[in-house]
Every structure is written in C-alpha cells, then in structure tokens.
Amino acid sequence: MDLIATKRVKSAVLKKVELVSTNSSVSCTTSHIFTELCSSHYLNGCKLLLPSMTCDEKVSQDHLLRGTLIIISSMIQEGYSNLSDSTKRLMDTFFESVCLKQEVLVEFLTLLMGNSHFEECKKEFGDSWNRHSILYVTVDVIEKLSMGFTTLLNYIDCIKKLNRADELFTSQEELDMILEQTRTSMLSIIQKEAGPFDFLIPRILDILIHKDLITEAIDCLISYKDLNEENLNAYIYIYKFMIHYGDTEPNFEEIIDECFDKIVQLSPSCPLILEMVDYCEIEPLKACKALMEFVDYSENKENPKAWRKLSDFLEKLNIVESNTILDHYKFIYSSYWQNYHWDQLENEFINSELDIWKQKVRDILIQQIISQKSIMKTESVSSTEKSVKKFKMSFQS
C-alpha cells in the first residue's frame, strides 16, 4: 500500500473512531473498528477508542487485553515517571472500568514486572486493588489472582532486599521466618482450588528447594496438577521437577507416564515430547503414536530428530504392536502422508539427515504393510483349505 493510500485508510478509520467515541448509540461497532486499528498498527487510534471500549459490553476479552497492552506500550515508550496527562487519564479510565472486572490486570502487572518496573507494579497494583476491592470483591477469580499477586510481590520484595544486603535482614532466622510466611501463603492459594496460578509455581519451588523440602514440593505439584487437569503447564512443571529432583521417588515412573500422556493430549506438537521419549522409559507403541502426531504438525515435519526417534521406536515394536501401529497409520495418516512427507523423497536426491530418517520410517511402514498382507494371505489360504477339507469330510461321512 502506497503512502497516499495509507493516509486515506488512516483518515477513514479516524473518522470512524471519532464517530464511535462521541456517539454511544454506535458503540456496537467498537470491536470491528478496534480490529482494523490493531491490524493497521495504528496505536494512536487505538488509544482514542479505548474509553468507548470500556462502555461496550460486546467487546471481547481479547480486545480488552489488547487495549491493556497498548496502554503498557505507551507507558514503556513514554517512561513510567514521565507519562503525559492524557495517558494517565486513559489509564485511570481503563482501569476503573475494565482491569479488575475483566480479569486483565494480572497481564498488565506481569508485563510491568517483566520490564523491571517493579516499584511501579507494586504501586499500580495497590492503587487499582484499593479502588475496586469493595466493588469487585465478589468476583472470585479476581480475588484469588489478587491474593496470589500480593504474595508474589512480597516474595520479590524480600529477595530484592536480600540481594542488596538490606539492614532489615540481620539474621538467618528473620529470613527463614519471611520465607516460611511466603511459603504458607502461596500453598494456601494454589492447593485450595483450581485457578490460574502458574506464576506462583516457580517461586514456591524456589522456597521449597531452598529449605530442602523435596517431598513437599512434589506433593504441591501433584495437588496443583490434580486441581488443574487441563492446564498444560501443570504437567510441564511436575515433569521437569521430577527429572531433576524426584527420580528416586517410588512413584516416579507413574508420574512421568501420566505427564507424557497429558502433554501429548493437550499439546501434541509440544517440543518437550521429543525430550520425554529420549530420556524417559516410554512404551514403544505409545511413543510411536505420539511421534506420528508430532511430525504431522508443519512446524515439526522437518525435524530430523523426531524422524530418527520414530524410526527407532518402530523397530522396537513386537508383531502385535506393529499391527496396531500400522492400523493406526492406515486409519489416520496414509491417505495424505504420501503428498505431505513421501513425495519429497521421490523427487529429490536423498542426502540430508532428514531425508535419510524419513525414508527409513517409510521403508519400515512399507515392510510392515507387506508382512501384514503376507500373513493375512497365509491365514486366508489356511482358512480356505480347512473349509475344503471339512466340506469333503461331510460327504465321506
């Protein structure tokens, strides 16, 4: 798009923004215009539209979150301590109507912390929560997140002071007392009921490892996993912790096996799957099914390690497992893998590591198909011979 066309688009969009921001009767179009603005990277127009978004009940969570990120982007560009009056007013308006009610405050605070605006994060969180705590205290998720974030901020504050050798920490006993209070507070949040508390897990693990409470850490992770069965991170956390600290636990293999099953189910293209089949004793049949689905994703189809591992596990299958995986392949993949994977092998000279392992997998599958057909043919001939023999005997009798 040339410069003149770009100016025309922005001019047209700006007129829509002015119409929406000054006329509440057309607020239903807010989401559509906001989408246009975001796709055009017209952030100034987005900022003009944000006050109208706070009044539009049809605006989605995604748009509200994007609006929050736009405000944060402005804050980072201007510098938190040098914010213009208009940006401050926009922040106040947006937070008043959206942040706590629409559950995007945590995203805002996380990004602030990620950009090292720790003190500003503490201030903004405190101000926002104090303004709305009475009005929105019935919103259960917000209350939980607020408790979790308060605990996290206290923990980070504690660590920062410790790193500065702050005079407040005059003894190991005092430090242990603060860590114990933080541990108790975090555990009371993440072990009561399901909730989006992933941001607390690494911190509670830091404390428990520091105090050498490995068994308690495992129990904490299992509890969090059980409460959040569809949370992928819950299984990733416990897998990584068990690999580093829990390999001597009596239920190690059982936990790892469950983690593998759930990670494959929740995220079949997760890179961690390759690591798990490499370092854990995963059953060959289960590993083959997982790796077949793994390479089925476009981002993984050119991964030589995945094809090598698939080849290795295919060769480990016994006869019954080979038939099972072959039926699985024919039912799901055989109709399109020729074009998706195998055509490349026929059209190019086989020389790369990727092509070598792809060809090996294809050859194994072809050999299994031939063997299966041969067995079926033998069984069919044998069955026919038995039928003929039985038929002849009936006449003789």
Describe what you observe in this structure.
The chain is an all-alpha fold. Among the domains are: 139-246; 268-397, no CATH class. It is built from 19 helices and no strands. Helix 1 packs antiparallel against helix 2 (30-39), helix 3 crosses helix 4 and helix 7 (118-136) packs antiparallel against helix 8 (140-163). One of its GO terms (cellular component) is RNA polymerase I transcription regulator complex. Pfam families: TAF1_subA. InterPro entries: TAF1A.
The chain-level structural class is mainly alpha
Biggest β-sheet: count, sense, barrel?
Answer: none
Order of helices and strands: HHHHHHHHHHHHHHHHHHH
Provide the gyration radius in Å.
30 Å
Beta-strand percent range? under 5%
Tell me the distance between the termini: 92 Å
In total, how many beta strands? 0
Low-confidence spans: 1-10, 24-28, 131-139
- Tally of separate helices: 19
In helices, the fraction of residues equals: over 70%
> Average pLDDT value?
73
Which of globular, elongated, flat, extended, rod-shaped describes the shape? flat
The gist of it:
By secondary structure, this protein is an all-alpha fold. 77% of the residues lie in helices and 0% in strands. One of its GO terms (cellular component) is RNA polymerase I transcription regulator complex.
Furnish the topology, listing elements before pairings:
Elements: H1 3-22, H2 30-39, H3 43-53, H4 61-78, H5 85-99, H6 105-114, H7 118-136, H8 140-163, H9 172-190, H10 201-210, H11 214-227, H12 232-245, H13 252-266, H14 272-279, H15 284-295, H16 304-316, H17 319-332, H18 334-347, H19 353-396
Helix pairs in contact: 1-2, 1-3, 2-3, 3-4, 4-5, 4-6, 6-7, 7-8, 8-9, 9-10, 10-11, 11-12, 12-13, 15-16, 15-17, 16-19, 18-19
InterPro entries: TAF1A
GO cellular component, one term: RNA polymerase I transcription regulator complex
